[in-house]
Design brief:
single chain; alpha+beta; Thrombin, subunit H; Pdz3 Domain; 3 domains; seven-stranded antiparallel beta sheet; six-stranded antiparallel beta barrel; 27 strands; about 20% helix
Length: about 475
């Protein structure tokens, strides 16, 4: 329930939806309505002036920069496992088919999302990777109704960022703010195309910073209570100056609709990934070859270090950049390139978002000594989707070691699954982007060498334990 008459008037004037009928009111009341932020005191206008408090002047420059994205493509049909059994195929009068032919059955799909124009001259559009993954055709629709076929410049599943390009004149781009200056309580506005209703504006505050979710990848989310719903993915989160502070990405919901907990990728992170995608068409995330965990007061006391923040090196990989630079087990890393490190997430982002070959200056506590260790960022060892030495049902996906993550967010070891190709053996076996394989045939795995040995092509079968989001499952793969 909105308690402020001023804010009620603001929302009435700020919500923009094209072609929306009264039926939308019914949709918006099907779930709980989260409380919204009040308008900042500085934006209140005198009632004597006859003007109503409004964000409309700011939104006039924002709305033309937010676009609708519609995609189409093909994805594998998930067949009923019973239909793989010859008895059931005969019982239901289903003729036998070679397994390879079954695996290549495809189904067309269509989906919608949102995007943000960030370069008007070159037509670059930021959106989410999950909006365009598996797409064979991408169309961008502007606020003025113009449609353009979009070119995919590149996408990065690890950060859920993708860059498109359209050839169009008279575009409006959003300036990108310094998201590191955001504070909890700052007012923000989300713009996108929820449920395909049309361009829609919602407002709220920054609820939290540096959030992580159960999904894998590089995470440093802005949490907001500005309504974000399906279709808002890739849309803009802006400050009250009309600057882009985040790219809407995920929601936490039991019903699929908004409950007041949404997540956006900070503009600083989006800009870093965008620059690499434009320059190289892909992002190669760096690593230094350490396994780390968050420092606790108990660990600090046991290790004899005088600090209230940092991460502990629990393992240095052999022949890694970290080993070559002289890092050791039990070292406590308290800063990277002069910036304070408070948890594993911060160090992971600091290293993983640097280009290969760049150096990171780590401030390290080793007992009562403070050291500076320069580590050259290396390329993460991984297995490509076409690796012929893996078990046949693993073909069609890429695999890489799980990078450092906070101990409170999922497993701290395993093999991350990415780029699962639609219709591939890995897809048919049930693997998904973001899965984490923590054991193979009941043996824990944390390195590519272990994974190659345990999941080789000559194995008779594989029993994989997979962590997926907040849950886990076993997958049994046989030839």
């Amino acid at each position: 329930m909105l308690r402020s008459k001023f804010f009620k008037a603001l929302m009435a004037s700020a919500a923009v939806a094209f072609g929306v009928t009264a039926a939308i009111v019914t949709l918006s009341t099907t779930g709980p309505s989260p409380a919204q932020a009040h308008i900042p005191e500085g934006m209140l206008q005198s009632a004597d002036s006859g003007q109503v408090p409004s964000l409309a002047p700011m939104l006039k420059s924002v709305l033309p920069a937010v676009v609708n994205i519609s995609v189409s493509g093909e994805m594998a049909v998930q067949q009923n496992p019973l239909m793989q059994d010859p008895f059931f195929r005969r019982f239901f009068n289903q003729p036998g088919q070679p397994q390879q032919q079954q695996q290549q059955q495809q189904q067309e799909f269509k989906a919608i999302g949102s995007g943000v124009i960030v370069n008007a001259d070159k037509g670059y559009v930021l959106t989410n990777n999950h909006v365009v993954v598996n797409a064979t055709s991408i169309k961008v629709t502007l606020q003025d109704g113009r449609d353009f076929k979009a070119k995919l410049i590149g996408r990065d599943p690890e950060t859920d960022i993708a860059v498109l390009q359209i050839k169009a004149k008279s575009l409006t781009a959003l300036p990108m703010a310094d998201s590191s200056k955001l504070q909890v309580g700052d007012f923000v506005v989300a713009v996108g195309d929820p449920f395909g209703l049309g361009q829609t504006v919602t407002s709220g505050i920054v609820s939290a910073l540096s959030r992580t979710t159960s999904m894998s990848g590089y995470q440093d989310f802005i949490q907001t209570d500005a309504s974000i719903n399906p279709g808002n993915s890739g849309g803009a989160l802006v400050n009250l100056k009309g600057q882009l502070v985040g790219v809407n990405s995920e929601i936490l919901s039991r019903s699929g609709g908004n409950i007041g907990i949404g997540f956006a990728i900070p503009s600083d992170l989006a800009r870093t990934i965008m620059d690499q995608l434009i320059a190289h068409g892909k992002v190669v995330h760096g690593h230094i070859g350490v396994m780390i965990q968050n420092l606790t007061p108990e660990l600090a006391k046991a290790l004899g270090v005088n600090t209230d923040h940092g991460v502990v090196v629990s393992r240095v990989m052999s022949d890694s950049p970290a080993q070559k630079a002289g890092l050791k087990n039990e070292d406590v890393i308290v800063a990277a390139n002069g910036k304070k490190v408070t948890d594993a997430l911060e160090l992971r982002n600091a290293v993983g978002l640097l280009e290969i070959g760049h150096k990171v200056d780590l401030t390290v506590l080793r007992g009562d000594k403070t050291l500076h260790v320069d580590v050259t960022v290396g390329k993460m060892q991984s297995l490509s989707a076409s690796n012929d030495n893996l078990f046949s049902d693993l073909q069609g996906a890429s695999y890489s070691p799980l990078q450092a993550r906070p101990s409170t967010s999922g497993p701290n070891h395993g093999i991350a699954v990415g780029d699962v190709k639609s219709g591939s053996p890995a897809d048919q076996a049930g693997l998904q982007n973001g899965d984490i394989i923590v054991s193979v045939n009941r043996q824990p795995v944390s390195t590519i060498e272990q994974f190659q040995k345990l999941a080789g092509k000559n194995q008779p079968q594989l029993l994989l334990r997979v962590v997926r989001g907040p849950g886990a499952l076993f997958l049994l793969l046989t030839h």
